[in-house]
């Protein structure tokens, strides 16, 4: 996979950059502006990293992707109980 080197040890996947560039052009933004906003947001709210990471790892384009975040580590009995409570 090809990478784009901004500075030493600061590499991005070329495909990721190309897709992001299209979106940024539509919104009249540039990479410097977006990265600056991202870092400012992290300073003000460090928990935003978890939200962004979760969104980045969310699957798309498949039927299983719609279930991301919906199914957790619930015990089967709890799932069954909540199902029967919802239908009654």
Question: What would a concise description of this structure say?
Answer:
By secondary structure, the chain is mainly alpha-helical. The chain has one domain.
Question: Can you characterise this structure?
Answer:
The protein starts with a strand and ends with a helix. The chain has one domain. With 88 residues, it is mainly alpha-helical. Strands 1-2 form a two-stranded antiparallel sheet. It has helices at 14-26, 31-44, 48-57, 76-87, and strands spanning 3-7, 10-13. It contains 4 helices and 2 strands; from the N terminus they run ββαααα. A hairpin with a 2-residue loop joins β1 and β2.
Mind telling me the C-alpha Rg? 19 Å
Biggest sheet statistics: 2 strands, antiparallel
End-to-end distance: 53 Å
As residue ranges, the low-confidence spans are none
Number of helices: 4
Spatially, the strands of the biggest sheet line up as 1-2
What class do helices, strands and sheet pairing give?
mainly alpha
- Proportion in helices: 55-70%
Order of helices and strands: EEHHHH
Beta-strand residue percentage: 5-15%
The total number of structural domains is 1
| Annotation, overall tally of beta strands | 2
What's the shape? elongated
Mean pLDDT: 79
Question: Which helices and strands appear, and what pairs or packs with what?
Answer:
Elements lengths: L2 E5 L2 E4 H13 L4 H14 L3 H10 L18 H12 L1
Antiparallel strand pairs: 1-2
